[in-house]
Write a structure and sequence with these properties.
Elements lengths: L6 E8 L9 E6 L11 E7 L2 E4 L3 E4 L3 E7 L10 E8 L10 E5 L2 E6 L2 E7 L18 E5 L21 E2 L5 E3 L2 E3 L9 E12 L4 E13 L5 E14 L7 E12 L5 E3 L7 E4 L9 E5 L12 E2 L1 E8 L2 E9 L8 E5 L11 E4 L7 E3 L4 E12 L4 H12 L5 E3 L9 H7 L2 E4 L11 H15 L3 E4 L7 H4 L4 E5 L9 H12 L3 E5 L10 H7 L2 E5 L3 E7 L13 E6 L2 E4 L6 E7 L11 H8 L6 E10 L2 E6 L11 H17 L20
Parallel strand pairs: 30-31, 30-32, 32-33, 33-40
Antiparallel strand pairs: 1-7, 1-29, 2-6, 3-4, 3-7, 5-6, 8-9, 9-10, 10-11, 12-20, 13-14, 13-19, 15-16, 16-17, 17-18, 18-28, 19-27, 20-26, 21-23, 22-25, 23-24, 24-28, 25-26, 34-37, 35-36, 35-38, 38-39, 39-40
C-alpha cells in the first residue's frame, strides 16, 4: 500500500505572530482523529511536494494528545501555513531528546547530556549555623543556560528564604490568621513537597508534575494545610545547536479545607526568581514589555520581562512571560532596583497580588501559567514580543479527515472563514464600546486568518449576500436592527442553512419584538445591575469555547439578566450573584432576587446552542470599551468564534424552510 493511501489526516497549522525566530510547541487531540495505537502512527511535513519525517511525542491523559515542535520558517520564507500528514505506518524511532532523571532527592532534566533544570523535592537545609527554620523543599535550583551557566541562587546571606525559582505567597488570610509562606523564618507557615504525580521524557519534551502543600503553623503548635498546589514543569529543547530552550510552568491552587484563602495585597508574592550571583548593576539588565528597565520597572505591569547579563565570557538570561488568563494580567512586577545589597543583586517576580487581593474559594481551582525562554546570547524587545505572541496565541491545528485531502491555499482558507461583523443599533442606548470591538475583532481576523467585513447597514441582509459568510457576529447591537421583514427572513434562512452566529453583550436586547430571534439568541434583555467588579464562574471549563479561561473570573462589567429565556441553551459561564454589591442602587436586591428565583446564586452569562439549523454562541459580557483591549476577554471572544467556525459546515439552503419571518420552528 502506498504512503498516500495510508494517510489518516491532513493537519494544517497557520503561522501567526512570528517572524521565524523560535520553535513553537503545537498539539492535536489524537482521539478525535484515529483509534489506531501509537505504534502505528507517523507524522510528515509536506513542503512543495517533499515529505519530511517529523518527531512527535504522545501524551496520555484523559485524551491522547500528539505534540511536536513547529520549526521556524527558513530565512526568506513567507509561508502563512504549514501542512503535515498523519499516516498509518511504523513511526521512526527517536531517542528521548529531553531526559528526566531522579537523582539524590531531585529531578534533573537534561538534553544531549547537558543539564537544563533541577527540581529539589528533598528538604534542603540552610548552611551550618543558620536557623533551621529556613529549610524548604519543592523548588527549582538551578536552571541553567544551554551553555551550562547557572541562572538561580539559593542560601544568599541577605535572604536565606530565597530558593532559586519558587512560588510562595506572602500575606495570606486563612482561618482568621495572617500567614506568611514566603518569609519562613517567622514561623507562620511554609511550603513542602508532598508527592510526585508524574514525570515523562521523550522526543519533544521532558516534564514532571508535583504536589506542594502550603502549611499554616497554628498558634497552638499544630499545623494545617491551607492550599494544595499542583506544579507542572515542561521543558522543550529544540535542536542541539539551538541556543535556547522553552520552560513552561503551570501552577494550580486549590483550597485544602472548607476555609477560603485570601491572598492579600502585598508588594511581592507568587513566582519569584532569585537570579545568579554573577549579576550586578554593571553587567546585567532588565527590560519589560512596556519598555521599563531596572530603574523604573518595580511596581509596573508587564506581559513579559527580559532578565539577562554577563556570565563570565558568555552572555545569557531568560525571558519571563505571563499567560493572558493569569489573575491580574498583565501582572504587576517586583523588580529589585539598582544598588540592592550594595552591588545590585537581581530578583524578578510576577506578583499578581501586588495591587489587589486574590480570594480563593473551596471547590475551585485557580491556574497561573508562565513560560521561560532560557537562552545564551542577547534578547531584544522585538524577539521577546514575538515569543510572547507565540505563547499567548498558539497556532490552532486544523484537521482534515477527508480522503486524500490536502489543505488549500491561504486564499481558500480566508474565503471559507469570512465573517460579517454587524453593529447596527435602533433607537435607544448605543454602546461606546463598538468601535473598540470592531478594531479588536478585525485584529483577531488578521492574526487568525479570517476576513472581517464590518457593517451597520441592514441592506446587507439578503440571501445572496449572506451566502459568502461562515458566521455572523452581532457586537453590542440593540433594539431593532433590521429595516424590513425581508431582511429578517434572509437572516433566519441563513441560520436554517447551517450558518453560525456569535452575539456579544447587548445582543440579548436586539429585536425584542421578534419571537424567533429571541429564541435564537436564548432570551431577551430585562435588566442589568450597576456597573461594578464581580465574579463570573466558568462552570464548563472543558468546553472548547471557555477552556483555559479563569475558573472564577473577576472583572468589571454589567451583570445582565434576561426574560423569556429559551430552555434549549447550554450555559458555559455564570454570574456569581453573591459577588454583586447590591447597595449601589435602589431596588437592586429585589430585582436580583426576582430574576434569580430559578437559578440561585449563579445566573447564565455565556451559553451556546444549536437552534433551527444554526450554531449559536452568546456572551453577555463586554460592556466596557476597555474590555476589547484586555487579552483575556479577547481570548474569550476568539474562542467563541473558533468554536462556531469548527461547528459550522458549508451552507445548505435546501434546509432553509422558512417563507416568512414568523413561520413555526421545526424543532
Amino acid at each position: 500500500m502506498s504512503v498516500s493511501a495510508q494517510k489518516i489526516a491532513t493537519l494544517t497549522v497557520p503561522i501567526n505572530n512570528t517572524s521565524g525566530s523560535f520553535h513553537v510547541p503545537v498539539s492535536v487531540s489524537l482521539d478525535d482523529i484515529t483509534v489506531l495505537p501509537d505504534s502505528m502512527l507517523s507524522l510528515f511535513e509536506i513542503t512543495d511536494g517533499d515529505r519530511r519525517s517529523v518527531a512527535y511525542q504522545i501524551e496520555h491523559g484523559q485524551d491522547r494528545e500528539m505534540h511536536w515542535l513547529l520549526s521556524p520558517n527558513k530565512k526568506g520564507q513567507k509561508k502563512r501555513e504549514r501542512v503535515f500528514e498523519l499516516v498509518k505506518g511504523k513511526p521512526t524511532v527517536v531517542e528521548a531528546a529531553v531526559q528526566v532523571l531522579d537523582q539524590n532527592g531531585a529531578l534533573l532534566i537534561q538534553s544531549s547530556g547537558n543539564n537544563l533544570l533541577r527540581y529539589v523535592y528533598k528538604t534542603h537545609y540552610p548552611p551550618e549555623g543558620v536557623d533551621s527554620a529556613y529549610k524548604r523543599s519543592g523548588f527549582i535550583h538551578p536552571f541553567w543556560t544551554p551553555n551550562g551557566q547557572e541562572l538561580t541562587r539559593i542560601d544568599p546571606p541577605d535572604h536565606y528564604h530565597h530558593f532559586g525559582l519558587w512560588n510562595p505567597w506572602t500575606r495570606v488570610l486563612f482561618d482568621g490568621d495572617t500567614v506568611d509562606f514566603w518569609n519562613i523564618r517567622d514561623g507562620k507557615g511554609t511550603v513542602r513537597f508532598a508527592h510526585l504525580i508524574s514525570r515523562n521524557q521523550g522526543a519533544i519534551y521532558g516534564d514532571y508534575q508535583t504536589v506542594h502543600e502550603h502549611i499554616a503553623f497554628k498558634k497552638d503548635g499544630s499545623e494545617k494545610t491551607a492550599l494544595n498546589e499542583v506544579q507542572s514543569v515542561r521543558i522543550y529543547k529544540p535542536d542541539t545547536e539551538d541556543d535556547y530552550y522553552i520552560m513552561d510552568i503551570t501552577v494550580e491552587l486549590d483550597c485544602a479545607s472548607a476555609s477560603p484563602v485570601i491572598l492579600q495585597e502585598y508588594r511581592y508574592g507568587g513566582l519569584g526568581w532569585r537570579a545568579t550571583e554573577a549579576w550586578n548593576d554593571d553587567n546585567s539588565e532588565v527590560l519589560t514589555s512596556e519598555g521599563n528597565t531596572r530603574k523604573n520597572a518595580d511596581g509596573t505591569k508587564a506581559r513579559w520581562v527580559i532578565v539577562q547579563g554577563s556570565l563570565g565570557a558568555d552572555y545569557g538570561g531568560a525571558l519571563m512571560m505571563s499567560y493572558p488568563i493569569n489573575y491580574n494580567h498583565p501582572e504587576p512586577l517586583r523588580i529589585w532596583p539598582e544598588g540592592t545589597n550594595g552591588r545590585g543583586d537581581v530578583f524578578a517576580n510576577f506578583s499578581p497580588t501586588k495591587d489587589r487581593d486574590w480570594p480563593l474559594y473551596p471547590g475551585n481551582t485557580y491556574v497561573q501559567k508562565y513560560r521561560f525562554l532560557v537562552y545564551n546570547g542577547e534578547m531584544d524587545e522585538q524577539r521577546a514580543e514575538e515569543a510572547w505572541q507565540q505563547y499567548a496565541h498558539p497556532p490552532k491545528v486544523a484537521v482534515d479527515l477527508s480522503a486524500g485531502a490536502i489543505a488549500g491555499s491561504t486564499s481558500d482558507v480566508k474565503e471559507s472563514r469570512k465573517v460579517l461583523l454587524y453593529t447596527k443599533n435602533g433607537e435607544g442606548f448605543v454602546h461606546d464600546n463598538i468601535p473598540y470591538a470592531v478594531e479588536a475583532i478585525k485584529k483577531l481576523g488578521a492574526e487568525y486568518d479570517f476576513q472581517v467585513d464590518v457593517s451597520e447597514d441592514p441592506s446587507v441582509f439578503t440571501e445572496d449576500n449572506l451566502k459568502q459568510y461562515k458566521l455572523l457576529i452581532f457586537s453590542s447591537t440593540n433594539n431593532d436592527v433590521f429595516d424590513t421583514d425581508d431582511q429578517r427572513l434572509a437572516f433566519r434562512r441563513y441560520i436554517q442553512a447551517g450558518g453560525g452566529f456569535v452575539g456579544i453583550h447587548s445582543v440579548t436586547g436586539t429585536e425584542r419584538n421578534w419571537t424567533w430571534f429571541k429564541k435564537m439568541v436564548g432570551g431577551s434583555f430585562s435588566w442589568h445591575a450597576v456597573l461594578q467588579e464581580f465574579t463570573v464562574v466558568n462552570i464548563r471549563p472543558e468546553h472548547p469555547s471557555v477552556e483555559g479561561l479563569p475558573k472564577r473570573w473577576v472583572r468589571k462589567d454589567e451583570c445582565y439578566f434576561t426574560k423569556e429565556m429559551y430552555p434549549g441553551i447550554k450555559v458555559l459561564m455564570a454570574h456569581d450573584l453573591n459577588s454583586l454589591d447590591l447597595s449601589l442602587a435602589d431596588n437592586q436586591e429585589r430585582l436580583v432576587k426576582e430574576h434569580s428565583a430559578h437559578f440561585g446564586e449563579l445566573y447564565p452569562a455565556v451559553w451556546h446552542q444549536k437552534f433551527d439549523g444554526g450554531t449559536i454562541w452568546i456572551s453577555t459580557l463586554g460592556h466596557m470599551k476597555e474590555s476589547y483591549q484586555d487579552p483575556v476577554f479577547m481570548q474569550h471572544i476568539l474562542q467563541g468564534i473558533q468554536y462556531v467556525f469548527n461547528e459550522t459546515g458549508a451552507l445548505d439552503y435546501t434546509e432553509a424552510y422558512a417563507r416568512g419571518r414568523d413561520d413555526e420552528v421545526r424543532y
